[in-house]
TrEMBL record:
The keyword ATP-binding does not apply. Coiled coil: none annotated. This is Uncharacterized protein. Gene3D superfamilies: MFS general substrate transporter like domains, Vaccinia Virus protein VP39. It comes from the Bacteria. One of its GO terms (biological process) is polyamine biosynthetic process. The keyword Membrane does not apply. Keywords: Polyamine biosynthesis.
Length: 742
């Protein structure tokens, strides 16, 4: 199948260099294009998770189609015809350059924009992304015919491909985004794509020359190698599906249940790509036994502290445990995947199955799990699945392995449903679960028993946590996990009092006291002693007939500032939030204070475009996804939109409380550039009033005279925004999260 080493030696340059460079460049361009085009879409469709999820599924589907094309091309045609067909595809794909949105692109004003988004992505970047996605399997197959001494096992080139992916992933937020606007990024990427096409042609010509003296049937000969069986391909499918799903599940879990830190999603994806680099490298055989031994050992500590008793650890240590457990699980799965790779004759089939599994993982987490589960349960399910995929599943009497976990499950279910005073035994049950987690290490050589027992432990743990958190209601949508909890807190007299709290992930988005005298008292970030309460109090004499718009509904506490004669409009992207806030069973702010308030469901920026100009007296911006404000609501164009909708003496109140980002820097720069006036209050409650929280607000007006009343107020300490130096203005073309990190 391969040419002799002597023929390869005639070339002054090793054939490895152009092939590795091309694979590296291809992966780099792919991982730059994804976040870049996501930012291009952001002002058009808003920062909803549904948009990002749809984009991800589009990328994974196109990647699968690219691998399918590579398998078809390399298995059906000889070298000359392969080069001719692929060259024609490269030339044809140039019509999409430079990558940009189609002219007059506008999402539908009614209905779900998913199909419109997929079609727009296809028109804008479909052809270039498809070409880039074909590069890894096709070039590795071509290299296997190069006659190089390593061409018999070209899979190590996959490490070069993933190294490019890793470089692009880390470079985009830290190097590209801070220095280049989107317009420049598009031009640079398009130029890079042209360079990639030239490199692909160079590799294709090298492949054709090496095979020029062979007939097509010789190039396509199977060299007597047996094709992979259906069972083997299903094994590949499982080994690639579980890590793909685990990646998305962990990313959502840590972003909602551990820490809503911006750019945190980069860390799991970095580890995921790193595993591919390691398992397809020359170190793989030495690393494999260490990974197999470390996974169950770390699992014991991981289950005991991160699931059974997470409150004992600081969030950063809990996060590290999750990341280590994830890395080991993916290393084991990808290690077995790499170990079972076929002869290079079936290389493209191998990658085709891998890409199909990755697409299935994305589809499952994006479109199945949110409708089947009311929390991120796909994450612990895939933890168990990764254990079941350890080597040795069919060794010995595997059918006897689940007996012990089955006995534990049966006994546990009897205790679980028969005890009326389960909370009296929580410590005892927790200790028993930790003991079982320790016992699980002894089953490390029996994947079915280890996975079954771990599944039993996680099942009981998640059930107990749900009971202990007093969760009254929990639902999940594209926008995340929303829950209502029944919490007991001390009142002003230190007596226990029951309150309802609204959570998005781990971030509290509202609360209501249930005692009769406090049912209509705004709490948390909207309390009367706080900044937004001071705004309503200071302008009390003139706000009798105000037209007020509020972006972000939460529990509806803001509605209790309503006065007869006012007109209120709430803009909320998640229909579930509207349902929860309007249900008196959970919260009664709206039903008691402002039942006639208008609800506009959809992205606030898109919805506000439709509002009449100069119609609002006050706009309250309080849009958060967990702990982060969507960046497209913070750009200069967004601020210009808000003031286009405000009257000349209108006020813009911006909620900027954030644990990680100094959002005041962004607003200070806008105020300076647009010649506006603004005041900031970083409120700290002086008394221990229940659920009156520390919160930061900025109030902006066209003229400084409009804010004098607040500046002279005795209700709170309002001050001018600090001067900001060296911050590049945030626009729809440019945002930079790292630049405002606290």
């Amino acid at each position: 199948m391969n040419s002799t080493p002597q023929s390869a030696a005639k070339s002054p340059i090793s054939p490895v260099i152009p092939f590795a460079a091309t694979l590296f460049a291809s992966a780099t361009l792919m991982f730059v294009l994804q976040p870049m085009f996501g930012k291009i879409l952001l002002p058009l469709l808003g920062g909803t998770p549904a948009v990002w999820n749809t984009c991800m599924v589009f990328y994974q589907t196109l990647l699968f189609l690219g691998y399918l094309y590579a398998d078809w091309l390399s298995s059906r045609f000889g070298s000359q015809r392969q080069l001719q067909i692929h060259t024609a595809l490269l030339i044809f794909s140039a019509i999409a350059l430079p990558v940009a949105l189609p002219d007059n692109a506008a999402p539908p004003t009614a209905g779900n924009p998913t199909l419109w988004l997929v079609w727009t992505l296809f028109l804008a970047i479909g052809l270039p992304f498809f070409v880039v996605s074909t590069t890894a399997p096709l070039l590795q197959k071509w290299f296997s015919h190069s006659g190089h001494h390593s061409s018999g096992d070209p899979y190590y080139l996959y490490a070069a491909s993933n190294a490019g992916s890793l470089l692009a992933l880390l470079s985009y937020p830290f190097l590209i985004e801070p220095n280049l606007g989107l317009a420049t990024q598009r031009l640079v990427w398009s130029g890079g794509y042209v360079g990639l096409c030239l490199l692909i042609l160079l590799c294709g010509i090298s492949f054709w020359r090496n095979q020029a003296d062979k007939a097509d049937d010789e190039v396509l000969a199977d060299a007597g190698v047996e094709p992979p069986t259906t069972l083997q391909q299903l094994h590949w499918l499982a080994l690639a599906f579980v890590p793909s799903s685990l990646l998305l599940g962990l990313t959502q879990f840590i972003s909602t249940d551990i820490a809503a830190v911006p750019l945190l999603w980069i860390v799991p994806l970095t580890l995921y790509l790193l595993t591919f680099i390691l398992v397809f490298s020359t170190w793989a055989d030495r690393l494999r036994p260490w990974m197999l031994a470390a996974q169950p050992a770390v699992l014991t500590v991981f289950i005991a502290y991160s699931f059974i008793n997470p409150a004992t650890l600081p969030y950063w240590l809990d996060l590290i445990l999750h990341l280590i457990a994830f890395f080991l699980a993916v290393m084991v799965c990808h290690g077995e995947l790499a170990k079972s790779r076929p002869h290079p004759q079936y290389l493209t089939r191998f990658y085709l199955v891998m890409s199909f599994a990755g697409m299935l993982g994305g589809l499952f987490n994006t479109f199945v799990a949110p409708f089947v589960f009311n929390s991120v349960y796909e994450y612990p399910i895939m933890i168990v699945a990764a254990l079941l995929l350890r080597p040795g599943f069919f060794d010995g009497k595997w059918f006897l392995q689940p007996i012990f976990p089955a006995v534990v499950l049966t006994v546990g279910l009897i205790v679980y449903f028969s005890s009326r005073d389960l909370f009296d035994y929580l410590d005892l049950i927790g200790g028993a679960l930790i003991l079982l987690a320790g016992i699980s290490y002894s089953l490390r050589r029996n994947p079915l028993a280890l996975g079954s027992l771990t599944g039993v432990i996680l099942l009981f743990t998640l059930g107990l946590h749900s009971m202990a958190s007093n969760t009254l209601y929990q639902e999940r949508t594209f926008f995340g996990v929303m829950s209502v909890r029944d919490t007991v807190i001390p009142d002003e007299n230190q007596k226990p009092e029951t309150v309802h709290e609204l959570y998005h992930g781990t971030t509290k988005h509202g609360a209501q006291r249930l005692t009769p005298g406090n049912l209509t008292t705004p709490l948390t970030y909207y309390s009367k002693p706080g900044p937004i309460g001071q705004v309503f109090a200071e302008f009390d004499n003139e706000n009798q007939h105000w037209n007020i718009g509020a972006v972000g509904l939460g529990a509806g506490a803001l509605a209790c500032y309503f006065k007869p004669g006012q007109q209120w409009t709430f803009y909320e992207i998640d229909p579930l939030v509207v349902d929860v806030a309007q249900n008196p069973k959970w919260f009664s702010y709206l039903s008691r204070c402002n039942p006639q308030a208008e609800m506009v469901v959809g992205d606030a920026r898109l919805s506000l475009v439709k509002a009449a100009d100069r119609s609002f007296d006050l706009l309250v911006m309080d849009a958060f996804s967990s702990d982060a404000v969507p960046t497209h609501l913070l750009t200069r164009e967004a601020l210009q939109l808000y003031f286009a909708k405000l009257k000349d003496d209108g006020l813009l109140a911006f909620h900027i409380t954030n644990r990680h980002l100094a959002l005041k820097k962004v607003l200070a720069d806008h105020v300076n550039q647009l010649h506006l006036a603004a005041l900031l209050q970083e409120f700290k409650p002086e008394t221990d009033v229940p659920l009156v929280l520390a919160t930061d607000w900025v109030v902006i007006a066209k003229n400084p005279e409009r804010l004098q009343r607040l500046q002279q107020s005795r209700l709170g300490h309002w001050q001018k925004l600090p001067l900001t130096f060296g911050l590049k203005p945030w626009t729809d073309d440019f945002t930079h999260i790292i630049g405002i990190w606290k």
